[in-house]
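Blinded run. Sample ID left blank on purpose so nobody reads anything into the name before looking at the predicted structure. Input follows.
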Amino acid sequence: TISDCFDRVKEKKEYDLKDHIQHIIDNADTRKISGKSRIGLSKSRIKSYQTFKNNIEEFEKSIRTTIQLTEINAVLVEKYKRWLLEKKGYSVNYAGKQLDNMRAVGKDAIRLNIPTNLYVHQIESFSESNENRHIVTLSEEELLKISETIMPSPYLVNAKKWLLLGCEIGQRAGDLLSLTSNNLRFLDGNLFIDLTQQKTDKKVTIPIASKEIRKMLENDFPKSISSQKLNKYIKIVCELSGINEVLDGKIMDKKSNRKIKGKYPKHQLVTSHSFRRSFATNYYKKIPTPILMT
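Blinded prediction complete.
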């Protein structure tokens, strides 16, 4: 009040980085998606922002200060990057995505005329080089072995169905596991799967050419399962099917909760994302590439 009487210049209000992350989360349902006609962030994007906020809160404890949007400079970003990679032991790709999030939050604050360091425009993401990536795919021969192997229990039979279907239609795990018989459509004796991809909001129609997959979908559609259980069970399915070639790769270490590089039997390296990669690999040059990509 005294400052108002003497017309003193008030201190500029500072805005916390994590407060603006929370602002984005709180307004997720009404946010306009860049380049899209729809509004509302996807569940996975909201989760990504929440994880980013958790990381920032932990990082702030380690540096014993609250990060203001005006303080996001080259020194701070480099310190955060080293903390992610060296202190926390996160993967290169994960750390790169965290910097993506920092840039996105900063640019959103600037859009709302909130005082923010313009360095946010210069924040650069990064990812693992191709030489360090270990992409696991299942060949047509391996899929045939899996198809012909009798599973000893119903839950493995169900996981096997999702694996075979996933390698046939190439969808992300979230889209794959959300499918039900309601997604099936018959037209002129042909079977199609219609779905809307969660990540891109793209409507996709997939023809089912495999007689075995078609028979399974028509008569015994796979039962709902979580992605966590699926990733656990398909490793058993592949092991029972003799998918044991030793490969370079990374598996999760339960003690450190980080992926450890090494040489492992292939069945230990298979995940639900292997379905999508197997589809793209096995159908390459059999389907025109633009259609395969779509």
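Unblinding after everyone has recorded impressions. DSSP finds 13 helices and five strands in the chain.
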